[in-house]
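Teaching assistant's notes for section 4

Start the section by putting this record on the projector. Ask students to predict, before seeing the second block, whether 8-amino-7-oxononanoate synthase will look compact or extended. Collect guesses on the board.
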Amino acid sequence: MANRTVQPTSPESHRARPEGAAPDPAAVFDWVDRRAELRARAGLTRRPRPRPAVDPVLDLASNDYLGLVRHPRVVRAAADAALRWGAGATGSRLVTGTTELHTELEEELAAFCGAEAALVFSSGYAANLAALTALTGPGTLIVADAYNHASLIDGCRLSRAEVAPVGHRDPDAVRAALAGRDGGRALVVTDSVFSVDGDAAPLTELAGACRAHGAALLVDDA
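Reveal the predicted structure now:
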């Protein structure tokens, strides 16, 4: 059966314009309202729930696994930095927004991870988009777990590389995809812990598959 999109049947959704009349500027984005109405009817809308500064509720949806957000030393250091450096970077990292704090943090992170260098982004989403578009491109095969985070999926789309989705946590499917490529570069992309289901990627097996087939491995270790 062909896919069909059901549109609202209210009179506002089918406005008739008199012949020769100029388009109504206010109606240019009527389609946004119609789509929002459809999403609401389907139960697909979400509303943020602002939390107070002091919340007695135990938050199990937070990324603050180590509880550092309210650690006294962390809070004090952030306050001291704001007093010294101000409340913003004043520009992008590429132009005027890189401060000594950025380079100091990146050097410490690189040393901690035993890496040659590190680069800090404003969010994990931005980091994944940047990594995938920088490390791939036309002529690259991306082998991606079907349950990867949305940021990895969007990064694959923006990369202009060939993308081969494989079954969730399936090293055999990864090996088959790598073995079937016609030469060229290859990058296997996976979450470390998948945020929806909470299960972990078989990183040891994936690393072995990449070594065996001359591919690189990118892990979103959020």
